[in-house]
Amino acid sequence: MPELEFTPVIGIEIHIRLKTKTKIFCSCSTNTDVPPNTHVCPVCMGLPGSLPRLNYEVVQQGMLAGMALNCEVQPKSLFFRKSYFYPDLPKGHQISQCDLPIVAGGFIEVHDENGNLKKIRVNHLHLEEDVGSLHHSASDGRLEGAAISYVDYNRSGMPLAEIVSEPDVSSAKEAVEYVTTLRRRVIYSGASDVELEKGMMRFDANVSMKCSDGRWGRKVEVKNMNSFHALEKAIEYEIKRQKKIMLQGGEILQETRHWNDAKGVTTASRVKEFYRKFIVEPDLPPLIISQEWIDKTKAMFPEMPDVRARRYVNEFKLTPEAADMLTDNKALADYFEACVKAGAEPVRASHWVRTEVLRILNEKALKIDSFNITPDSLANLIKRIDAGKISTTQAKEVFDAMTNNNLSLDEAIKSCGITEGGIVGDALSSIIQKVIAENPDVLAEIKSGKDTKGKKLKFLQGLVMKETKGQAKPQEVAEALTKALN
Questions:
Q1: Structural domain contains residue 231
Q2: Are the beta carbons of 225 and 202 closer than 8 angstroms?
Q3: Which of 369, 395, 415 finishes a domain?
Q4: How far is 86 from 356, CA to CA, in rounded Å?
Q5: Which one is predicted more confidently, 468 or 39?
Q6: Ramachandran region, residue 249 (left: φ > 0; alpha: ψ -120 to 50; beta: rest)
Q7: Is 306 helix (H, G, I), strand (E, B) or coil?
Q8: Is the pLDDT assigned to residue 139 strictly greater than 70?
Q9: 481 pLDDT band (50/70/90 cuts)?
Q10: Summary mean pLDDT of the chain
Q11: Scanning 26, 97, 388, 399, which has its CA 20 to 30 A from the CA of 277?
Q12: Is residue 467 part of a domain?
């Protein structure tokens, strides 16, 4: 009997907080760096008589995020009430789009296990409000073992985009590439900063298994994942768990499970509900988006990272690896392009940004927006290298002086004691005569003809280069030294 084969069938649901100044249905600030329960009002607290009003900026950001996923904006969408009772939702229902989302029908490209491009279809993106955040008194912050739980409603009403894929993902690796690619494209669109450390992106994975004998396991929804690592490990664990049950002839329960990152396991939470809990939101009219608004949004839609990377390869002759590294961060890619626009040779500029600039950013935990060397200054430094005015070694010394001491390019060159154009002419001849005079035994050996392999001559060249502090060109030193010896 042939060995049974199992194929994972995975769909990903992603919640992303959109970048707006105020919440989705009220004028409360979206700033989270405040004490608990301070950015709240009757609307986001669900007090009787309060009415929601849709934020224009949320709709705009939702359209941009959808375009980043290759989706089409729907001219008409609708909001519903999703009813459930939990402490983080004071009004007993969440306002969310359901059957009629704002955008639908997109895709994200990933690489399959053979390295071939594969499309993961995006069913839709819909808008909804976030709920409050629960804080538990347990030492690890978890509900399990906590004596007291607290609720902070500052997050309640934050604007979310929920992105639902089709079940096209076949492995944990594909899932991670899907969400990382999606995150990068949404950041480029300007719809969200998607900062994982601030909880701006959360994942749910719907995992089931298809067996070669024709059996299908029921779908299990895994929740509580807020990092790429957690998503990958949770899916890997769930695949192994379901495969083991099916090999033993058992049935997969259709349930919701939570990922326990500390223990590396999924745990049962509740059996999946089979009834609908949605009614049309009576306090919000249908969302009608004009073609004029769609066209206006398309006009402001930026170049996506994968398109930008291909342009760097074709236009600037960068390697695909260098192009991918630069375009992974939009602000870094903008900085690189500004250097090129200021006159820096693209390949050399790419190397400096990917090595020296990133080195300083990592060492000082800075973002490129806070970097004290402007693209123009870096371009001028690179141009002086290409013009032969300073060496690459000297340029790195100057670069460090600029970053550490907040100096201009000219100030840094002066502080490093560097002579632009190098030491030449009479100044170089004077140094050579000094080195020769201080090494009479070496001179005698050269003149005797014993230095057949030129080791003594190279020794003198090294001393001259040391005296010039690397500010003379090796070829010019060799020629001037040979002339002096002759």
A1: no
A2: yes
A3: 415
A4: 51
A5: 39
A6: left
A7: helix
A8: no
A9: low
A10: 88
A11: 26
A12: yes
Q: How far is CA 434 from CA 126, 222, 421, 478, in A?
A: 78, 76, 21, 15
Instruction: Identify the CA nearest to 429 among candidates 481, 486, 471, 470.
Output: 481
Q: Range of 32's domain?
A: 17-192+251-292
| 240-270 burial: b if 16+ Cβ within 10 Å, else e | ebbbeebeeeeebeebbbbbbeeeeebeeee
Based on the number of CB atoms within 10 Å of its own CB, is 145 exposed (0-12), middle (13-18) or buried (19 or more)?
Answer: exposed
Are residues 316 and 280 part of one domain? no
Structure tokens at 450: 């014993």
pLDDT value, residue 364 = 92
**With 90 as the cut, is the pLDDT of residue 262 above it?**
no
Q: Supply angle C-alpha 179, 183, 189, rounded to 5.
A: 145
**Residue type at position 181:** T
pLDDT digits (tens, 9 = 90+) for 213-242: 888 989 999 997 989 999 999 999 999 999
**Using 50, 70 and 90 to split pLDDT, how confident is the model at 47?**
very high
Q: Please check whether residues 284 and 310 belong to one and the same domain.
A: no
Q: How many residues does the chain have?
A: 486
Q: 7: closest CA among 179, 211, 178? A: 211
Q: What is the pTM of this model?
A: 0.82
Task: Give, for 401, the enclosing helix (H) or strand (E).
Answer: helix 392-405
Contact of 308 with 189, CB cutoff 8 Å: no
Question: Is 227 inside a domain boundary?
Answer: no
Q: How many domains does the chain have?
A: 3
CB 26 within 8 A of CB 43: yes
Angle of the 320-327 helix axis to the 330-341 helix axis, nearest 10 = 110
Tens of pLDDT along 272-311?
A: 655 557 899 999 999 999 999 999 999 999 999 999 999 9
Pair 269, 330 in one domain: no
pLDDT tens column, 321-377: 999 999 999 999 999 999 999 999 999 999 999 999 999 999 999 999 999 999 999
The angle subtended at Cα 15 by Cα 14 and Cα 19, nearest 5°, is: 130
Q: Which of 382, 415, 448 is the last residue of a domain?
A: 415
Residue 4: which of 335, 326, 248 has the closest Cα? Answer: 248
